Amino acid sequence: MRMVKLLVLALTLAAAGTQANAQGSFKPNGPVTITVPYAAGGPTEGLMRPLAPQLQALWGQPVIIDNRPGANGTIGVQYFAGRPGDGQSLLFHITALIQNVALYKNLPYDPVRDLVPVLLLGRQNNALVVPKDSPYKTVQELVAAIKANPGKFAYGSFGNGSTTHIYGQLFANAIGVDIPHLSFKGEGPVLTEILAGRLHFSFTSAASAAVRAKEGSMRVLAQTGPIRTKFFPDVPTLAESGYPQFELTGWWGIFMPAGTPKALRDQIAADIRTTLRQPDIQARLDSTALAPTDSSPDQVLAEIKQETAQWIKLTKQFNISLD
Q1: For the chain, which terminus, N or C, has the lower number of CB atoms within 10 Å?
Q2: What burial class does residue 248 get, using C-beta atoms within 10 Å of its C-beta: 0-12 exposed, 13-18 middle, 19+ buried?
């Protein structure tokens, strides 16, 4: 009898363990697909690939990453918009989702009309960087040199219409000097030029800047955003340096099709937050310099509407377009 009781107890504990591994509030009827509108192997993969198996364990169904790159993320969104709001189709996107509203005249989607936000995985500051051997150690020193030598400084960006392009134009406008813009195909070539000392300065991702500043191959003069982040606790914000125009931050987020029931959206948001608390996912967030946010889905929607208007204003002001 004792052996039977022990066997029953063991089976009960095993069942409880299985339930604990799949105790998400969302109960999908089949595989869940997360559309990622960028190529496999990019920076976003470092978070989304590890996140998928965590959600799979929670939901008890396969979670598939579907990469659909092209046109600054618009092709993936166009494919995704209009899919059923049953929770089995999710979209990952970054700030470009709303920046594209300002950059394209005939955008095939409306982020407010066609999508509903689930949550932001985190917000990310950018960094104003110079080569390691640059004589400039503060924003004020860099600005003074640019003003004293008009036309002799240039900045690089990840491409026309990118956040770094917009920030560069905003910086030039803020200091009242026209600064030539050199457009590169992504962050990699910009970093190469900065590390080689061939580019005077640039805005770059906080993640890349943090790694290279730590190894001493690049100097960070300031960071965007309203407050300092833990990734650069000793680096002032541009607002602290006298330029309050740089409070906008980048973000990574999860979205669902318009028409998704609120209760379902809230269930999935809660489940994803559960996975974000896992130590390995926290480490991934840190590696991308993403600062977690507690904004509810409704708060995210309000933030997106406000930030869309701000990006539209900036791109119009500097006549930046991708059409």
Answers
A1: N
A2: buried
Task: Write the pLDDT tens digit of every residue in 161-215.
Answer: 999 999 999 999 999 999 999 999 888 899 999 999 999 999 999 988 988 998 9
Residue 254's DSSP bridge partners are 92, 119
- Residues facing 35 on adjacent strands: 66, 91
**Section 278-299 average pLDDT:** 89
- Beta strands (DSSP E) in 115-265 are 115-124, 126-131, 155-157, 181-183, 201-205, 218-223, 250-257
Which homologous superfamily does the CATH classification assign to the domain defined by 30-123+249-317? Bordetella uptake gene, domain 1 (3.40.190.150)
* Burial bucket for residue 15 (CB in 10 Å: 0-12, 13-18, 19+): exposed
| Phi and psi torsions of 158, nearest 5° | -75, 0
Phi (first) and psi of residue 17, to 5 degrees: -65, -40
CA dihedral for 108, 112, 118, 124, sign (positive or negative):
positive
What end-to-end distance do the CA atoms of the chain give, in Å? 78
Domains 30-123+249-317 and 126-246 share a fold: yes
Rounded mean pLDDT of the chain? Answer: 89
Q: What is the CATH number of domain 126-246?
A: 3.40.190.10
The pLDDT of residue 22: 52
Beta bridge partners of 115: 257
Return the amino acid letter for 68.
Answer: R
Domain spans of the chain? 30-123+249-317, 126-246
